[in-house]
Amino acid sequence: MAGSSKIYGEITGYPIGSTFANRNIASKSGVHTPTMQGISGNKDEGANSIVVSGQYVDDKDFGEEIFYTGMGGRDLKTGRQVKDQSIDQHGNAGLVTSQNQGLPV
């Protein structure tokens, strides 16, 4: 997107499916800059990366395909989704923007 410093799609040196020991290393690499949030992005810029980190038990990583719960609605004790996701949540809104604008995540 014009004016965005985010990289959409593959990043040289980090093929799709790359793994990192922790979020700090992923952030320093520039692949996924937030150190706490699972979605990097917002409604205006779109989302450029997501992290499946095991925080949501409903997330599934099959290598070429993932089931991603989104941001918000998780019970902190059980890790399970207890309420519906909201498109008003900035990360989820970013995913919608990326889908609508054809931006790779």
What does this structure look like?
- A two-stranded antiparallel sheet has the order 1-2.
- The chain has helices at 23-29, 90-101; strands at residues 39-42, 46-50, 60-61, 66-67.
- It is globular.
- The model has no long low-confidence stretch (mean pLDDT 85).
- The chain has a single domain (23-99), classed as PUA domain-like (Roll).
- The chain is an alpha+beta fold.
Oligomer: single chain
Strand order of the largest sheet: 1-2
What overall geometry do the principal axes of the alpha carbons give? globular
Number of domains: 1
CATH topology: PUA domain-like
Number of helices: 2
Can you summarize the main beta sheet?
2 strands, antiparallel
Query: What is the CATH superfamily label?
Result: SRA-YDG
Highlighted features:
105 residues; 18% helix; two-stranded antiparallel sheet; alpha+beta; PUA domain-like; single chain
Summarize the structure.
By secondary structure, the protein is α+β, with helices and mostly antiparallel strands.
